[in-house]
Amino acid sequence: MLPITALLVLTSSAQAATLPLNPAVTQENIDETICVRGWTKTVRPPFQVSNAIKLTKLRERGLTEADKSRFELDHIIPLALGGAPDDVRNLRLQPWSEADRKDGVEVCLAHAVCAGRMSLNEARRRIWKDWRAAGRACKSKLASPQIWRARNE
Fold it and tell me: InterPro entries given for it (predicted)?
């Protein structure tokens, strides 16, 4: 299966980067895509696809299948922000100790986008650059504590 991907070009004074995105998600259609409860389930790759990617990434790091339970296969730009579902550039091994914290950041940013407090592209840029910093900014400036703790996936 080929990845469904679009590219968002990010420019800075230093360099330009492209992000692996789902072309079905745009700022104009967030009310029909990412802002619909349960939408991410419709684009999440099947277990067989995710598992194969996870095993490949483990081997690339010199790890074995026995190490599989130590990591989550994480979408760097989450599906809830229109990240590419099965593009290997958007997937990384994430230690389980980080997974819950990053999930909270993803929820916060998605709520900020759906509430109109942040553009979709800004949320994508923030989480791609540094998910921890994106979380601090979202938690302190963009969302109420109730939104921060919410889970919708």
Answer: HNH_nuc
